[in-house]
């Protein structure tokens, strides 16, 4: 690093993340990098507060406007104070994955914290008030924080009226009052919340000015959200705006509420993982799900719906001919007939997950090979009835191919013969959620990318 900074006196951008830089490295930066504006020391844990003290004495780094200190858990309040003194033009600081950071670390700096704040459990309303007053945020993502209360959301929504994207994960104090504050935002297009306390908070949101403007709504794990929530959702989001909807593990939803999804003709992706979707929906192909001309659904997730049957799959797929992604992981009643329905209409299918569908046989790979020419990702884990030789038929064309004949994990809630081990309870669903966590993280990532672009 000393050679680089010594030979590049006009260096503007330097990314040293995930390296073993020490205090000596920072001293060299403070001596040589007179023009440096962007510096990333993310997850560099070999330097200490003493290294940051060089920023106050050297000639370099005074023009820094962006500094990434994510994961640098060794920095104390004194270190943040030195950063604030030595880098007076600093505008943005990233402090993600900082479980040791406290309010005072934010307050002594007086700089704007970038709105991606995850794994910061000790930041309280005091810090978020300072963040809200120091930044004009358009998006914010907060994860794993138990100190943030309604007061924080009141400050954020008042001081940052242009907020468009909000993602809240594992923040247990998010309440109906918080949702009332969020509902006042006029430009909100993407909202992701988990474990919302009741239908009341969602009602505030939908009746607010941003209700009809929502493009993405993630209610994953909101156990108290019921059919009336979907009725309000269908009534308020009548404009062609809502494109991505996640209702996974909303266990109170029934077919009565799911009928309302047919009114949301602009949906592109729908996640019903772990819901209690019943056979009755198969009798409502017109009222519940419009014809293909009105519904351009590309991604459908029905994983861990233990009572999902062939007829339900038939009704859904016949109304969604443009499907690119279909996930039916952990659905013990599925048979080859369901795959025949899928392949008969979904000719553009690119990704399919049938893991844990124990009644599928060697006929399934043959159907997919013949009808789904664009299939690039196939997962057939715990498919005890599909021989490996048959599964290998799909491997040459697949970019990602998975297959096993292992026994179904007990937390799937049924045996390898498809017999239910226990009623579909919340604790079983929460365990099942672990296996679909990667899918949901990718969905959130796509959501963030779509809103930021």
UniProtKB/TrEMBL annotation:
InterPro entries, A to Z: FBXL15_LRR, Leu-rich_rpt, Leu-rich_rpt_Cys-con_subtyp, LRR_dom_sf
Pfam families linked: DUF7885, LRR_6
GO biological process, one term: SCF-dependent proteasomal ubiquitin-dependent protein catabolic process
GO cellular component: SCF ubiquitin ligase complex
Biased composition (Basic and acidic residues): 437-453
Span list, region Disordered: 427-453
SUPFAM superfamilies linked: RNI-like
Domain F-box/LRR-repeat protein 15-like leucin rich repeat: 117-233
Protein name (record): F-box and leucine rich repeat protein 13
């Amino acid at each position: 690093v000393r050679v680089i900074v010594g030979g590049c006196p006009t260096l503007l951008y330097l990314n040293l993340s995930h390296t073993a830089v020490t205090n000596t490295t920072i001293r060299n930066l403070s001596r040589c990098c007179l023009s440096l504006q962007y510096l990333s020391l993310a997850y560099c844990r070999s330097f200490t507060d003493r290294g940051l003290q060089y920023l106050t004495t050297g000639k370099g780094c005074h023009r820094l406007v962006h500094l990434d200190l994510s994961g640098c858990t060794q920095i104390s309040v004194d270190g943040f104070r030195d950063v604030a003194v030595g880098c007076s033009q600093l505008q943005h600081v990233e402090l993600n994955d900082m479980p040791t950071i406290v309010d005072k670390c934010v307050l002594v700096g007086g700089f704007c914290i970038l709105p991606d704040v995850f794994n910061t459990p000790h930041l309280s309303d005091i810090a978020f008030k300072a963040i809200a007053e120091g930044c004009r945020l358009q998006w914010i993502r907060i994860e794993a924080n138990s100190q943030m209360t309604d007061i924080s959301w009141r400050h954020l929504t008042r001081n940052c009226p242009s907020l468009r994207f909000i993602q809240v994960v594992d923040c247990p104090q998010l309440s109906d009052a918080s949702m009332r504050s969020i509902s006042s935002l006029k430009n909100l297009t993407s909202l992701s919340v988990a474990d919302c306390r009741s239908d009341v908070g969602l009602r505030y949101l939908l009746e607010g000015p941003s209700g009809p403007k929502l493009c993405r709504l993630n209610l994953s794990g909101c156990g108290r959200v019921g059919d009336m929530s979907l009725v309000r959702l269908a009534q308020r989001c009548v404009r062609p705006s809502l494109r991505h909807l996640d209702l996974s593990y909303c266990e109170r939803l029934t077919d009565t509420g799911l009928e309302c999804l047919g009114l949301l003709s602009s949906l592109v992706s729908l996640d019903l993982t772990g819901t209690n979707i019943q056979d009755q929906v198969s009798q409502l192909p017109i009222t519940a799900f419009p014809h293909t001309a009105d519904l351009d659904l590309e991604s459908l997730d029905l994983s861990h719906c233990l009572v999902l049957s062939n007829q339900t799959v038939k009704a859904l797929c016949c109304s969604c001919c443009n499907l690119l992604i279909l996930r039916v992981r952990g659905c013990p009643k599925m048979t080859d007939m369901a795959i025949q329905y899928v392949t008969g209409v979904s000719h553009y299918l690119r990704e399919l997950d049938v893991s844990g569908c124990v009644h599928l046989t060697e006929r399934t790979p043959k159907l997919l090979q013949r009808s789904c020419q664009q299939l690039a990702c196939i997962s057939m884990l715990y498919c005890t009835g599909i021989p490996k030789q048959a599964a290998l038929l799909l491997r040459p064309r697949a970019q990602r191919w998975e297959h096993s004949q292992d026994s179904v994990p007990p937390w799937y809630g049924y045996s390898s013969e498809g017999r239910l081990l226990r009623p579909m309870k919340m604790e079983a669903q929460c365990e099942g959620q672990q296996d679909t966590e990667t899918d949901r993280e990718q969905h959130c990532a796509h959501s963030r990318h779509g809103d930021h672009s």
